[in-house]
Amino acid sequence: MILFKNPKLFQSTLVTGSRFINRYYHAAVVSDYGKIEYREMKNNSPREDEILIDVESVGVNPADMRMINGTYHLKPRVPFTPGFELAGNVKSIGKGVKKWKEGDRVVVLRSSGTGGFAEDCIVDTNADVIVPLPFSIDYETAAAVSIAYGTSYLALEKMAKNREGANVLVLSSRGMIAFAAIDLAHNLFKANVMAASDDEQRLDKLRETGVSRTINYQKEKLIETVRKSTMNHGVDVAIDTVGGSVFTQAVDCVRPGGSLFSLGFTSGEIPTINLLDLHRSQVSISGVWLGAHPKQEIERIVGMLIGLFDQQFLQARVEAKFSLKDVQKCMEDINNNKLFGKVLINPKD
């Protein structure tokens, strides 16, 4: 006979012989837009083409923040569990699943944009991006790679086909994608990189990456400084994650025939561009969203990036890690601009 001194433990546990099967898991739940809380949830079993992931680490992205606040283009019905970039182990599989087995280590991107901020996550093998994870790469590195590095790679891969030694300008106020873009530009595409941000402490962190120059666009004249640094030619590629007036200035930092890639709007301001200005500058402008690409293409890119990390070509930088219980503090710190760089939530902590 097994006695439970803790009634809650009895309620949350099914006893089968000598085995204990947890019937509940914990998750961060958005009960109303802008409100997130730590909850106990009843377990679900994977259906025909689904797998259940034992989540080890989850990446926190600007899209998550906007989804939590109800300002993202994907707007799940409340209540929901946010988080779509995760790494962990296959815990169980549906009857129709052939490719994956229990115990497989995987990186996952959820097409729905939800479910990751939890100890367990149901994954759809037909819709979600699932990539095998080598034992040589830890879960935290894996959870920091897919979005930041995948998005940056899409922006930089065209440059790689044209030339090495290109001049690249990376503009950032949050750092989540900036460090990935700098890492790829330096170590994979052999570019000369300048970085710009709005705060000296953030610039100190960017200097640690070995960029050739940093620019405080709040205190310095961005266009003039970039032009001086490139002998008045301008950069070949600019990567903007800020939006607003910074994006507008970035157009004039790019040489005629160069490219400007918009990877996000952390300022909260979505910029507009005058078509006449594009005729004048001859700059190509593209928006980059990893999620717009086919599942197979994203799996190819993420798998390739995981391989580069496995070969130690690249090295992810993580700014902060939070437990699932501290999800509210995590959201507050990001909203208050206290964190600059990739943030992770580790459900097991």
Automatic annotation (TrEMBL):
<dbReference type="InterPro" id="IPR051397">
    <property type="entry name" value="Zn-ADH-like_protein"/>
</dbReference>
<dbReference type="Pfam" id="PF08240">
    <property type="entry name" value="ADH_N"/>
</dbReference>
<dbReference type="Pfam" id="PF00107">
    <property type="entry name" value="ADH_zinc_N"/>
</dbReference>
<protein>
    <recommendedName>
        <fullName>Enoyl reductase (ER) domain-containing protein</fullName>
    </recommendedName>
</protein>
<dbReference type="GO" id="GO:0016491">
    <property type="term" value="F:oxidoreductase activity"/>
</dbReference>
<dbReference type="InterPro" id="IPR020843">
    <property type="entry name" value="ER"/>
</dbReference>
<dbReference type="InterPro" id="IPR036291">
    <property type="entry name" value="NAD(P)-bd_dom_sf"/>
</dbReference>
<dbReference type="InterPro" id="IPR013149">
    <property type="entry name" value="ADH-like_C"/>
</dbReference>
<dbReference type="InterPro" id="IPR011032">
    <property type="entry name" value="GroES-like_sf"/>
</dbReference>
<feature type="domain" description="Enoyl reductase (ER)">
    <location>
        <begin position="31"/>
        <end position="345"/>
    </location>
</feature>
<dbReference type="GO" id="GO:0005739">
    <property type="term" value="C:mitochondrion"/>
</dbReference>
<dbReference type="InterPro" id="IPR013154">
    <property type="entry name" value="ADH-like_N"/>
</dbReference>
